[in-house]
Structure formats: structure tokens, C-alpha cells
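Postdoc handover notes: sequence design on the structure in folder B. Input C-alpha cells:
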């Protein structure tokens, strides 16, 4: 069994320092790794990244993250990534990591993701160059996620994104903004490999649980949705939600 703690949209700045730390200090007792689904900072500055590294670094288990749209706000995403990596945090964007946990290999493929919408109500790569670029960005990111997932050899496979791969976990958000919260292309990428669990954030008013068309469990772990420092999910068991913890 592998236990994964997960959260997203923590939006760390100096005023957040210490808020998550008491629960994070319990991590080694309840989880084997911590995955964070983007929006690590408030405005994507180096100063905020340093606060994020202080809050979520050195927690006793591996920490794996993707960036979110907030982490791109100041166009300092490369510097933000460098700060986090210097603190021992693994940052994924179209690439993968494999963790050896209790004799099992946990493979994680991560991308930020992008928008575009879902079946029956999605943008198409047609018309103005701006629209082609918008949809093309999602296509490229989804292709990278699918290739990363399919390239992993492991006992349990997790997809980590910021944007949602399914509409079910957006329920509670206005329908009008679904195209800006995720894309069905991410779901197709996840279904192209034997993925055990997909984690995302971004939809603060969404719902926690959904599934891809291929049946992969999807969990929206945005902090405003789970309303705690992290949820714990179990892999290599019959019930991914059996390990849910209150922290």
C-alpha cells in the first residue's frame, strides 16, 4: 500500500507561513509522499516561492508539485521553480519522477495543464490565430502528459495537474468558466496509460470526486474544496479513499 497526501491552491505568501506546518509535521505518520496540485504561491514571485519552500520543505516525506496559473502571474516561473528545487521539492512540467516506497515504485507524471473545455462544450483549433494558439497550448501540454505517463514503469501511476481533466470535479463553479478550468484532452492523456489516480486543483468552488471516461479516479484537492491541510489517498488497495485523514 502507498499513502499519498495531496493538496492544491495553498497560495503561500509571508502571511501564510506557519498555517500548514502543524499538520505537515504529522506527515511521516500518515503518508509516504506529499503531492501539491499547483497555485503554490499567490502571485508567482521569488519571495513567495521562498515562503513556500519554508512552509512545505523538509517535511519528512518526498514533496512533488506542479505549478499553477498563479505561479505564472509574475513571469518568474523559472526562478520560482529553481527556489523550490533548491529546497528539495520536485517540480514537474511534462516530466516524471519515481519514488521507491515500501518496496513499491510510485510513478508521478505532472503538468500544469490548461483550459479548453469538455466534450460538447469545448474550444476548437479553428479561426483566429489567438484561438488556435489557445487550443494548441492545451494540445501540446496534454500530449506531454500522456507521453510522460506512458513512459513510466512503476507499480502505481499518478497524474498530477493544476487544471482539471474532467467536468465532474468542477461542479459548483459557474458553467461559463468551465473552459478556463480544464480540458477533456487532459482526461484523454490520463486514460492513455494505466493511471491509478489523477489529482488536480484550480477549481476552488468545485467538487472533490470524479472519474475520467476510462474510469480513473479524479480528485480535486484544492484547499478550499478539501478544507484541510491535505487529504490522504491510498494506492494498491481496493479503495483509493480509504485513507482519508482529517488534518
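Designed sequence:
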Amino acid at each position: 500500500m502507498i499513502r499519498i497526501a495531496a493538496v492544491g491552491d495553498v497560495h503561500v505568501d509571508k502571511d501564510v507561513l506557519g498555517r500548514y506546518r502543524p499538520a505537515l509535521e504529522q506527515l511521516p505518520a500518515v503518508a509516504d509522499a506529499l503531492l501539491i496540485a499547483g497555485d503554490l504561491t499567490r502571485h508567482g514571485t521569488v519571495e513567495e516561492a521562498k515562503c513556500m519552500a519554508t512552509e512545505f520543505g523538509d517535511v519528512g516525506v518526498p514533496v512533488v508539485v506542479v505549478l499553477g496559473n498563479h505561479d505564472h502571474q509574475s513571469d518568474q516561473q523559472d526562478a520560482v521553480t529553481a527556489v523550490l528545487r533548491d529546497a528539495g521539492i520536485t517540480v514537474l512540467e511534462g516530466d516524471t519522477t519515481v519514488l521507491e516506497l515500501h518496496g513499491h515504485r510510485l510513478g508521478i507524471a505532472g503538468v500544469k495543464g490548461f483550459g479548453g473545455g469538455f466534450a460538447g462544450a469545448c474550444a476548437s483549433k479553428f479561426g483566429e490565430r489567438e484561438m488556435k494558439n489557445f487550443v494548441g497550448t492545451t494540445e501540446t501540454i496534454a500530449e506531454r502528459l500522456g507521453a510522460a505517463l506512458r513512459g513510466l514503469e512503476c507499480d502505481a501511476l499518478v497524474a498530477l495537474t493544476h487544471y482539471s481533466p474532467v467536468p465532474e470535479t468542477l461542479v459548483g463553479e459557474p458553467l461559463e468558466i468551465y473552459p478556463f478550468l480544464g480540458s477533456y484532452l487532459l482526461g484523454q492523456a490520463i486514460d492513455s496509460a494505466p493511471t491509478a489516480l489523477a489529482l488536480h486543483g484550480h477549481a476552488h468552488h468545485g467538487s472533490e470526486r470524479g472519474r475520467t471516461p476510462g474510469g480513473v479516479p479524479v480528485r480535486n484537492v484544492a484547499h478550499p474544496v478539501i478544507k484541510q491541510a491535505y487529504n490522504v489517498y491510498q494506492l494498491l488497495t481496493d479503495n483509493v479513499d480509504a485513507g482519508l485523514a482529517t488534518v
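Context for whoever picks this up: The chain has a mean pLDDT of 95. Don't rerun without checking with the PI first.
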